[in-house]
Amino acid sequence: MKQKIFTHIRMLLLFAVCFYSVSAWAQTNAISGRVTGSDSGALPGATILERGTSNGVSTNADGAFVLSVQPGATLVISSVGYTAQTITVGSQSVINVTLAAAATQLNEAIVVGYGTSTKADLTGSVVQLTSKDVANAPVQTFEQAIQGRAAGVVIESGSGKLGQGIKVRVRGTASVSGDTQPLYVVDNIPIVTDNLSSTGAPTNPIADINPNDIESITILKDAAASAIYGSRASNGVVLITTKRGKSGATRFNLGYQTGTSQATRRREFLNSKEYVELLTEALKNAGRSDVSNANRLRNYAAGVTVDGNYAVDTDWQDQVFRKGSFSQYDLNTSGGTDKTKYYLSGQYSTQEGILVGNKLQRIASRLNVDHKATDKMTLGINIGLSRTRNDRLPNDNAFSTPLQAVALAPITPVIDPRTGLTSGALDLNTGNPNNNFPFYYNPLLGVQNNAATYATFVYRTLGNVFAQYEIIPGLSFRSELGLDILNQDEDQYLARVTSRNSGPTNGFAFSAHTTSGRYITNNFLSYRKVLAELHTVEATLGTSYEERKQNYTSVEGSQFASDAYRKLGSAAVYSAGNSELTRSSLLSYFGRLNYSFASKYLLGLSARIDGSSRFGTNKQYGFFPAASLGWVVTEESFLKNQTVLSLLKPRISIGRTGNQGFSDFASLGLFTGTSGYVGIPGQRPLQVANPDLKWETTTQADAGLEMGFFDNRISAEVDVYQKLTTDLALNATVPATSGFTSQFKNVGTLENKGVELSLTTRNFVGDFSWTTTVNAARNANKLTFLQGQPILGSFVSRAQEGFPIGTFFAPEYAGVDPANGDALYYVNRANEDGTGTGVSDRSKGTTNDINAAQLVPVGDPNPRWTGGLTNTFGYKGFDLTATFIGVFGNKIFDGGAQYYSVAFNNGPDNQTRDQLNRWRKAGDITDVPKADYLSGNGSGQSSRFVKDGSYGRLRTLTLGYNLPGDFVKKGYLQSVRVFAQALNLVTFTKYKGWDPEVNTDYLSNNTTQGNINQGIDFYTAPQPRTITFGVNVGF
Amino acid sequence: MKKIVYTLATALFLAGSLTSCDKKLDIDPVNSVRDELALRTSSDVEAALVGCYTGIQNAEAYGGYIQLMSDLLADDGEVTFVGTFIPPNQINRKSMLKDNGFAQAIWVNAYNVINRTNNVLANIDKLDTPAKRARVEGEAKFIRASMYFELVRLYAKDWGDGSPASNLGVPLVLTPTRVLDAASQVRRNTVTEVYAQVIADLTDAEAKMPVNSPAASFFANKYAAATMLARVYLQQGRFADAGSAANRVISVNKYTLNPSYADEFFSGSAAGLLPNSPEDIFAIQISAQSGRNELNTFYSIDRRGDISIEDKHTDLYGPTDERGDLFTTSSGQTYSNKYDDLYGNIKLMRLAEMYLIRAEANFRNGTLLGATPLVDINRVRTRAGLAPLAVLTLPAILRERKLELAFEGFRLGDVKRNRETIADPAGVAVPWNSRRLVFPIPLREINVNPNLVQNEGYN
Predict the structure, then answer these.
(1) Per the CB < 8 Å rule, is A683 touching B185?
(2) Does residue A735 belong to the interface with chain B, where contact is any CB pair within 8 Å?
(3) If DSSP codes are grouped into helix, strand and coil, which group holds residue A319?
């Protein structure tokens, strides 16, 4: 067999060689062509060199060239900022080449706040990703596509539900009660990213942006880079630049991809036989009689006696997980003349989630136009319109959320044989719900026949107009007006069949409408001048004003004539209504000065003054300066005559940023009118004023070293940083004798410090290219002062002085007493500092009374190390990209385990299979306590449910093939690329739950606890494993 | 062209900077109102007064906790708290921890209400007419005094225990809080000072409040103030003053006993409303949309049913005592039926109490103000279906008071002023002046206010 294949290949090769050589002889020696960049249009000035000779030429303004070559010649095509390509001429007379933009080139333009710079001139810590990193990924939002791509930027999708909030942390969590997400700026306009969901689970307003419209994503990490965004920059800044048109022929690009997705993993639960065995044992141990046990099982089994012949074995995960689908259609066109350029795109994307009933659709379009009105004046408009529909699922903690079906017994049939209806359907005789069969509400009832629906529609307009005028050469003025309008409709209906869960309402509906409007004006001057060819001065000075207004109205009602009426107009009872409005404004002045001497010595200064309506009257304006220095050592003469080191650039920075991500009127003394007394209007004091309320302040120092070796075949960057956050705004406890219990005050401090590494090696260049990019980051978070009082989160999470935010404090599980099967806990010792916590002290022995055990730190949900590894291979038209991501050293609290991993000690919920290892007789050594029905043995929240959440994952794998140019041309096309890709193909973890990338949705949005609740698993949907196939056609 | 562009650019730049003065940052909230704008008109202040009523309607005040926790603390084995809440359990066992959640909640809410009343009183000049001014001032002082009276009874030693002039009471805060500063770190006033403030407020309230409250019949009037004053004097052992205050309520002939004791407490439907009756001097109003009857939550067999009534209590009722019929036994637990209306008003002040106070005061003082003690006691007995007594003793009066007012929040005050010794569930005797019968100053308060001295036994 082996030999046969070999022969085939040999014959194929022989045939190919003959074919090529014959046709080569037939060609003339003159060739022509055009060179373009992967991220731009024509590349003027690119070099085309016949390998092994000095015969070469440069491209003209259109990127075109003509060159005569020897037969059998090989061309080397190169351009600054792009990866060189080698092409065998063969029989071709026309060679069109697209050069890939190189990731680590010094002259690459880097988007910075209110301008651009180059990698060489930068003195701050910045990561820039490009369209190729986000385009066509089978995800809803671009953050998901860049997971693991940037050192120190930790991105986590808390659950596999679609369109849900995504956690992005740049260099750690820098706030306890305030916003911790970075500031997002699209084409110079900060956009609304606040969660606007009416349910407890957050949604993600970034899902309204089509990732395929993105040209570049720049993440500003240190103060030198981000301080120009002032009071909103402490969590980092993400600058998104959308694609723009290039002059030249009009191009069209059509993309289509489709595929399927499935849960990355399932948990293992007991099957019918095991369920009966273990439950019976637990019941017997609890002293229940055989007769009552048989009755119980019969009830669970829809009235059928459970004996050796009982055949029902329901895997409830099969009922709620499904093969989801992903389809996306893209069409964009760009082009223009020297005067007017445009980019126009449209996308329809639809994805069905891995859980029944979950769906996300997006229709997005964008038009970006640039027009040169005069030699000096440019005008333009960028506008993105989108409509996103998200069919959402109930929160993780709801009995009605599909994944809670796993709690049902495997002996319960999906269809009740007595009625032929889904188990738990309404009793046909009374119309009332079956209140004890199954033993919990069956979530399938809601997802069948659209009985329970929650649809969110978001209509988003994101646009800006700008004008730029060159006053004198080097000095230009730019004025921008941006608008971000978000209209959101939420419509919920719960049909009668759900009444066991939603109450006897004869249909329940909820409807909410949110309008969020924001306008921004930026006006700034930019200046650049090179003096005496040595001194380069760059300066920016400007002002910005923005105003935001958010309106919310909701109504709920019940009693519908039938489930066919689902809108509130048909409700007989209106049970609640609400209407709220909130506003804020921000007035800013900013400036930046960069100076470079002989491209060797770099100095950067920037500052912003922010005045915010959120700040107290005594602290209305904040000042946020930053300074940085860089030294390009390789520009020094003593390093000129060597080839090893192509770049050596140490840089340092220090600066101050702020965070004002808290509620709009936290500084004011307020009265509320919600104190009516049985129908008579009343009011009362609500909040005590704090005229001193101000931004949270982060002072960040950063030292970095950028290195390049062997003509940048190897490039590396190392950063160490320390972020000290002071004036943390917390709800500080105040004497209740004042009539108030808390005041929002700047009282706390915390720190983040860490190190970041990134390394890119171009292992092979040429026909076969192979590039490896690695990044890794370590961040250590510590709460240094919280007024001495812990802030409790949910389950066992808390913010406690001296520990990282979200550390789990719980009794420490000590395993099972071999003598009697009792769960044991270490008593440990009370902390002498009076903080109400304990410290580990094994000498105090163990106890079976969980209340007698001290609460000690038992796990940190913050990862120690995060990173990514991307390998890109190219050969001829093929390309293969694989990105592994890793998150290490974090702990998960499995909040659902107290129900499903406690050997029936907390009720009849089906149990995970590991519970079969329960203690059975004296002398058994196991960590699963004795099964004793409802005894609570071992089910209390303790370190027993704290698990290692480290994981490594093949996040993306993409294989693409660009069809050969001349083949494509025959179909009057410019380019054809086919590809296959996989998301989350393989996951390596010790975590036994559904997925280690987890944070339950219903706890991640709480305004006081959202930052504290981390790494909590509670019937949380796993991530999808998605595989798609697609094609991109250019014409 | 160039000129136009320059002008345009300059204009834009200026628009962005100079005109955007501080005013742009001055944004008014809409959902709520700035405190300096909340109390500008007469009706604003009246609405703030309504907010005071909402405050005492809260669960943590007369919505139920004050009455229930007083009775649990003073219980002598006549009830058992069988619920899962730990704080009431501690209170019933008379071994509270200093972080007892209910002790904290009652304190926090009471001072919240006091701040509401202080806001009203500080803006009393905003009211349109002298009549309105008098009414609003009277009602606010009535509510403030009621909260201070409850606080000083729960968180301090009894009036009769040692020297009230040196015993620590609770901090007196008499002005609205606008800022938090060093002055917010208040100290405890003495028991005498607190009682003096309470009596001053109530006396002024009684003088200023109308006979009938205008807006709705359920706001407090002159007689509610007199009733509260009677309670205060009774607690101090000032029997002449107590009897006189009670007599002022009775002699106006505005109130009459409900012919049926059961009807006073139950409308006949467990999901129903229980309106005020002619017997009610002041009641906390509850409706489906407003307030929560927490006594219903804890006592009712239809709800949590956390309070198990023991035979030691039910055995006290004579065979024909209709008040003894207000109990249901189910699955071995006996429940009181006094609070079976889900949305029942909470009868805070009933005429029967006034008869009992006048009788006790007259009896102890040997006076005959209004009526003889025997007549007053027999009025209460006859209504309950009992035979009139021929001879009266103090124990008989106190026993009548205990049964008539059972589970209405009177036991703690009575145990202390009558110097009874009770037993905790473990059978350990607890005398009337035991530190175990005084709530801890909430731990949260001690933590944030170093000027507060903790009560004995909680350090």
Answers:
(1) no
(2) yes
(3) helix
